[in-house]
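Practice problem 4.
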């Protein structure tokens, strides 16, 4: 059967995050037809082969691309990114995927990566590991961790030779 629903436009710099065994959320990115950053939110149900554009309550994050999204339980964490005007963002937003409710800049202590885009993030237990990315001062080779239970950022001790600074890369947890 064909895919139906409100299909997202062609885009780049967006995120697509699995939220159930058969569904995902697509957020943000730059639309290829006008090269404008977006804060669009789409869902896809693979079992039903249908796209949707849900209406979330609360204030959606500003339009962005080159951000990361990481699912922690039912909460989708959006970290950093780049606006359409090339402003680097250093914010954190959380979407409750069950109730479709945005939480903007939840209080978090510690040493965050700051304004960052083109980074990667993976989840281990209840911690989001953020690596690399580009800041106003250049590309990073650092690891930052957001403990989502405590809402606290920290930099773990790392041994050995770090990789060269990078952005625009990918990461996965095995």
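Answer key:
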């Amino acid at each position: 059967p064909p895919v139906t629903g409100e299909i997202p436009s062609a885009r780049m710099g967006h995120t697509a995050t699995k939220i159930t065994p058969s569904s995902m959320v697509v957020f943000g990115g730059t639309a290829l037809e006008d090269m404008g950053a977006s804060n669009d939110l789409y869902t896809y149900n693979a079992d039903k082969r249908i796209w949707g554009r849900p209406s979330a309550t609360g204030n959606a994050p500003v339009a962005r691309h080159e951000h990361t999204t990481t699912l922690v339980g039912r909460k989708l964490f959006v970290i950093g990114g780049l606006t359409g005007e090339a402003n680097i963002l250093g914010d954190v937003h959380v979407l409750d995927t069950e109730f479709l409710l945005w939480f903007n800049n939840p209080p978090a202590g510690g040493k965050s990566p700051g304004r960052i885009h083109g980074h990667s993030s993976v989840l281990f237990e209840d911690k989001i590991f953020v690596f690399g990315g580009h800041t106003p001062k250049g590309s990073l080779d650092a690891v930052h961790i957001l403990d989502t239970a405590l809402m606290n950022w920290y930099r773990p001790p790392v041994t050995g030779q770090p990789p060269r600074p990078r952005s625009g890369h990918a990461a996965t947890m095995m």
